[in-house]
Amino acid sequence: MKRSIPELQHSEVPLVMVTAYDYPGGRHAEAAGVDLILVGDSLGNVVLGYDSTAPVTLGDMIHHARAVRRGAPDTFMIVDLPFGTYHTGVQDAMRNAVKIIQETGADAVKMEGATAEILQVVDTLTRNGIPVMGHVGLMPQTATAQGGLKVQGKDDDSARLTLDGALALERAGAFGIVLEAIPARLARLISEKLHIPTIGIGAGVGCGGQVLVTHDLLGVYEGEEKKIAKRYAEVGKVAREAIEHYAAEVRARQFPTKENSFVMKDDVLDKLY
Ligand code: KIV
Ligand code: NA
C-alpha cells in the first residue's frame, strides 16, 4: 500500500527508493515492495541514451511517469523536474510541477539545488500543497558548473555549502532530501541535523534511506560498473544471451516448435489445394 509522507518520515528502517521509467519498471518496483519510486531524469542517460540529463524535457518526464504509474498505482511516486523547468521563475516552476502532478498522478516532485531561487520555488510549491524532495551534493543537471560528475563536499567550503543547502531545504518545506556523491561522514552529519529523511546515493550508510538507479542495480549495461552502485543482477548479460539463443534457434530452424504453432484440420487444408 502507498505510504503517507509522515509514515515515510518516521520509518524505523532505512527507506528504499529505486528509479523507474516505464510500465515494467513500475511493476517490478511495486511488486518488490519499495517505499518510494523516483521517475528520475536519469531517464536521459539510462533509457534515452543521452550523455547527460540536460536534454530531458518536461514532456519526456510526463510520458514516462504516466507509464510508471500504470505499473505502480499503489507506490509513492516522485517525479524529477527536469533541467530548465524550474529555473525561470516561481510561476513557471509551479505551473510545471502542477502539470506533472495532474498528468502523471505523481505524489511529489524533486528538484536539484539549494540556491536562493530554488529555495523560493520549494517554499512556494510546498505552501501550495505540492510535496517537494530536495537534492544536494552532486547535481547532474548542472554538473558541468560543478566541475564534472565528481564527489562534492570534500573540502570545508563545499561541505558547508552542502550542509547549509540541506538545512535550508528543510526550512523551505522539503519533505526529504537526496544526498548524492558526498563523503559518508558528511552525509551522516547532515542526516543527524535534519528532521526530514535523507536518501543517499554514493553517500554511505548513515542516511535515512538509499536510492539506486534501477538500471545500475540490475546490471543492465554490461561492463559499466559504478562505485556508488552495487549490481544485484546481470540483466544485460541475461538479455543479450537470451537474444543470441533465440537468433541461433531461428537460424537453425529450431524455433518455433509445434508448441509455438497453431494447427488446423486436414480437410480444411485439402480444400486449399
Ligand atoms: O535522476 C535520478 O535518478 C536521480 C537519483 C540518482 C537520485 O536523481
Ligand atoms: Na535526477
Automatic annotation (TrEMBL):
Record-listed 3-methyl-2-oxobutanoate binding positions: 41-42, 80, 110
Active site as annotated: 180 (proton acceptor)
InterPro entries noted in UniProt: Pantoate_hydroxy_MeTrfase, Pyrv/PenolPyrv_kinase-like_dom, Pyrv_kinase-like_dom_sf
Swiss-Prot/TrEMBL GO biological process terms: methylation; pantothenate biosynthetic process
Chief subcellular location: cytoplasm
Catalytic activity, as annotated: (6R)-5,10-methylene-5,6,7,8-tetrahydrofolate + 3-methyl-2-oxobutanoate + H2O = 2-dehydropantoate + (6S)-5,6,7,8-tetrahydrofolate
Cofactors: Mg(2+)
Pathway where it operates: Cofactor biosynthesis; (R)-pantothenate biosynthesis; (R)-pantoate from 3-methyl-2-oxobutanoate: step 1/2
Cofactor: record remark: Binds 1 Mg(2+) ion per subunit.
Pfam families: Pantoate_transf
SUPFAM superfamilies for this protein: Phosphoenolpyruvate/pyruvate domain
EC number: 2.1.2.11
Similarity-based family: Belongs to the PanB family.
Function: Catalyzes the reversible reaction in which hydroxymethyl group from 5,10-methylenetetrahydrofolate is transferred onto alpha-ketoisovalerate to form ketopantoate.
Subunit structure: Homodecamer; pentamer of dimers.
UniProt name for this protein: 3-methyl-2-oxobutanoate hydroxymethyltransferase
Organism: Deinococcus koreensis
Taxonomic lineage from the root: Bacteria, Thermotogati, Deinococcota, Deinococci, Deinococcales
Recorded name of the encoding gene: panB
